[in-house]
Structures are given as structure tokens and as C-alpha cells.
Amino acid sequence: MKMMKYFMIGVALMGVSATATAQDGTKADIDAVKNIISSKPADMDKQLNNYYKKNKKNVDNLLGFSKAFYEAKDTARARIYAEHALKANKNSSQAYIMLGDLAALAEDGGAAAAQYEQAIYFDPKNPEAYRKYASVYRKISPSGAIAKLNDLRTQLPDYPVDAIIGHIQYISNNFDEAIEAYDKVPADKLDKMDIIESAFSAYLTKKYDKGIQMAELGLSKEPRNSTLNRLAMFCNTEKGNFDKALEYADKLFNKSDSANISYMDYVYYGNALNGLKKHDEAIAMFQKALDQEFDNKDKRAGVIQTLANAYKGIEDYPNAIKFYEQYLNEVTKASAADYHSFAQLHVQHANTLEGDAKNETFKKADDIYSNMQSKYADIDDFIAFQRARIGMYMDPESKLELAKPHYEKLVELIEAKKEKEKTDVTRLIEGYRYLINYYLNIKDDTATAKTIAQKLQNIDPENEIAKMVLNLK
What we know:
mainly alpha, single chain
């Protein structure tokens, strides 16, 4: 599930606000400034000046104006009003936070950290300042960020500091550490985003039971939360709890608020259906997945591969082959394992056919392995073994000698290895047995058959075929 990582982190972080400012002042003035911003009048600064004069001592409203510009992506004016707020009260922790947010938006982490540190200095009990400091400083020194959060613990002993540490570890991709931190926080002090991040960290680290536990905790408070229903579906599918996975799939697709359904949702839905052997429904889900937007062509190729495998599962080999070929054409770089799987689909298809169609399909499999030889020289023995097997399928009586050159190459390659693994020995035995049969029964060459039988006995002393041939007169 690596391809899901950044997508899901983005979903999880949507609930984190860019900045928070007190707005205890005259809300009507803040709303009026927002209206001016949205209408973009030619004399904007002149209109704004009236509200500045009226509120130049009102720190809350000045920060409200600054935040409105920040949200409108007018960072120049956002800075002006944050600085006005600082002039009105040079000790305003929230003004420093706003300036820190602007520096962070400009990707100046050092300046942002300095502003947040000023906010902490003027209000050492302001959790937001610590959280934002840690968020930017973690890129410079994760341990320094955590140390600053532990300073908050001394200021507010009852504050769930470990929840902030969990968040910092989460956005730093330290998912095991995030889970550990969140586990230290009493469940009733975890907010929605804490629970989502803990559940997603568990999903990414394959701690699916923990992911289910946290998702269910969140859903007990917000049963229509789409992210939590999604995580519950994912984790239950990975655990093989397919019935439960389908329950959460139904909740995600039909009983969640603001559910932005992605291709991965359809894939997991299909996987759960596959798990319950509802193959036709699963295939429909995979096909719907392909209709969704993808930000990476390899992700789309992966879904095509999943669809091909689903057709393979119901032994619909023509469709399996069609979609697997499409996968190979679309993926950026196919692996040797991919081509092997493609060849084996043809072998499996051939075994369902008769006559010329059977051999033609075997030949297609052989062609795939033949093309692999120029690309993957390091697995020559594996390719020779597969081609030898296909030759046997096409020519079981060895009259056409289709398998012979491949078994000979297999034997040559494995014999040359200084160290042989168990798989090598098994394949070597098969190669020797084929060649013994060929020379004994096709060529009537007992001497050559005995030479090979001796090699067979050397690696498999109790081999009955070797004993029998060596005893021939």
C-alpha cells in the first residue's frame, strides 16, 4: 500500500487549520473586511484604512483581518495587519504565530521557528505555539522539536502533549513512534485528527488490529466520518475480515459525509468482494476504479494488473491476458516477475484448450520467455527451466526435441554454479531425468544415458531412476 501513503496523509491533514486567532473583538468589522477582500474594489486600501483606524488598538480584530488576508492568499497584507497587531501589543503571542504562519507559507522554516519561539516566550502556556514550532523545527531537528514539546508538559501538566508529539512523528513519517505517542494519551483526550493519524499510522505499519481499534473509536463519536470508515474498510480487508470490510465499504460509499471516493476505495471494495468469492462484483469494482482520476500512471497500471488477476481468479484467461498485456504496456518499468506472470497466464490458458489452439498458446508463452532472455541474463537458468517445461507440454514424447535444448542449457548453467541452492538441485534432477529418458528411449544411447545417470546419482544417491539405468547391461 505504499502508493496510498501520501494520498491518505493528505486526507488526514485536511482537518488541521492553518492558523487560529482569537476573534473576541467586533466580529462585524472582521466580516466587513472579508467582504471587501472578496469584492476586490479598486480602492481596497482606502476602505481598509477606515477599519484599521477604527481597530488599531484592537489586537483581536487586527489579527482577524490578517487571517482573512492569509486565507485569501494575500500574504503581503496579511503581514501588514499582523505587524499592526504587534504594534498594538508587542507581547501578543498570537501575532507572532501569525507571522510564523506567513514565514512557514513562504517555506522559510528558520524564520517561522523564530516567530513561534517568540510566541512561546510571551505566552509559555500557549499549546498552539509549541505545536507549530515543533511542526517546522522537526525538519531541522526532530529531537529538538520533541524537546520543545516536553517544555509544554512542564507548563501544562494536564495537557495531552503526547498527542502533539504523535502528530509531529506522524507528519515526519515516523509511524511507529506516532502510534507509541498516541497510545500514551487517554482515549477521551484524543481529538478526531489524533485518532485518524493513529489509525492511519497503524495501517501503514501493518498493525491492522490497532488500525481497526482506532477507527472504531473514532466512529463511535463520528459514525459518518469518511476517513475513518475508509481506514476501517482497508484494515479489515487486510486482516481478511471481509464481511466487516463490506460493512464499512457500505458506510463509506453510502453513509458517510463528504466522502471523496478514490480509485483505492474501489480497489479495496473489490478485494473484499474477492475474498468472499463474489468475483463478478469484484471485477465491476475494479473496472470502476479505472474510471477514477489517477495522479500517477503506474497507480493506474496497478489497478489494471489487479483486474487481470481477478479475471484469472475466475479462470477467464482471455480477459486476464488482455488486461495483463495492457498493464505491461502502461507500467513504467515491468519486472521479470511481471513477464513471468504474463507467460504463466498463457500456460494456464493453454491447459484449458485443445489441438492447435493449445500449442499456439503454449508457443506464445515460450515467446515471452524467449524475449526475457535478452533482458534478464541473471535469471537465464530460470528462463531455461520454464522454456523446457513448455517444450514438454507441447512435445510430451520428445519426438520434436522441443524441450531438449532448454534442459541442456539448464543443466549447463546449474552445473557451473559453485554453490547450488535447494531449488537448483531440484531443477538439475529434473533436467537429468529428462535427458536420461531422451537418450535411452529416443536415441537408444545407453552409454550417454548412463553418464547422465551417474551425475544424477552424485546429487541424489537414492534416486531410483539413476540406479536402474546404471544397472543396465
